[in-house]
Amino acid sequence: MSFITAYCHINENSCSVNGEVILLKNEESADSWFKQLYKELALEYPKFYKMDMLSQAGFLGSELIKKANPDLISNYKDDEIALLFANSESSADTDIRFKESYQDKKTPSPSLFVYTLPNIVLGEIAIRNKWFGENMFAVLPKFTPDFYVQYGTILLNTGSKAVLAGWLGILEGQVEVFMFLIQNGNSNGKPFDKENVIKYAGF
Fold first, then answer.
1. I need a labelling partner for 191 at 20 to 30 A (CA). Which of 2, 60, 113, 163 fits?
2. Which superkingdom, per the lineage (predicted)?
3. Residue 179's closest CA among 150, 127, 153, 143?
4. CA-based Rg of the chain, rounded to a whole angstrom?
5. pLDDT band at residue 102, thresholds of 50, 70 and 90?
């Protein structure tokens, strides 16, 4: 049996882990909201600053989940953790900015072009953590709990022992991020089913 053992939310103004708010956006800060979160986590990963918002969202969510569950890395082999993400905007947030770079500014930006695929966030998280398990990024019309339950169950029944899953809604300043960890056999959480995915997602 599998269980949801940790989860986090990030929106435009706040960040919470397992239902507890850990940081509110400082409107007076010169730093972006995601940069404020990065500093709060006291991370040292310079590549963060080169990522687009979608990848930064996934990166921050994965770090928050790891912090809430410190044994995550040590408990699993590098191919036993799967990644399962989705959203409804694909990489549109960066696509729009890349389009502006070559249509309006006449200088196509290679650094933006790199992020014009939504699954780049999977690579960023995998490289950061040296996780080489299965991974999937789906573009769906809306948040769909059944997608996570059905696909996550397949992953957990075919070799993966944990799944880091998430909904990464990023578009033109709007932020709707929900990430959660599913673990096989770890009963320190709620059963991994549609009801609990809806409950923790909160939308």
1. 60
2. Bacteria
3. 143
4. 17
5. confident
Alpha helices in 32-157 (DSSP H): 33-40, 53-68, 72-75, 92-103, 110-113, 120-129, 145-157
Residue 172 CA, distance from chain mean position: 17
Contact, 156 vs 137, CB < 8 A?
Answer: no
Only one residue has tokens 């490289």, namely 127
CA of 154: how far to CAs of 43, 131, 192, in Å?
33, 18, 13
Cβ burial, residue 193 (10 Å; 0-12/13-18/19+): middle
Residue with tokens 């995998």: 126
Q: How does pLDDT run across 131-184, given as a tens digit for each residue?
A: 999 999 999 999 999 999 999 999 999 999 999 999 999 999 999 999 999 999
* H/E segment holding residue 201: helix 194-201
> What is the pairing mode between strands 14-17 and 190-191?
unpaired
- C-alpha 154/C-alpha 29 separation (Å) is 44
187 in helix, strand or coil? Answer: coil
**Reduced to 3 states, what is the DSSP secondary structure of residue 159?**
coil
Element (H, E) at 169: strand 162-171
142-155 pLDDT per residue, tens: 999 999 999 999 99
The pTM of this model reads: 0.94
Residue 95 CA to residue 87 CA, distance in Å, equals 15
Local structure of residue 40 (DSSP, 8 states) = H
DSSP character for 45? -
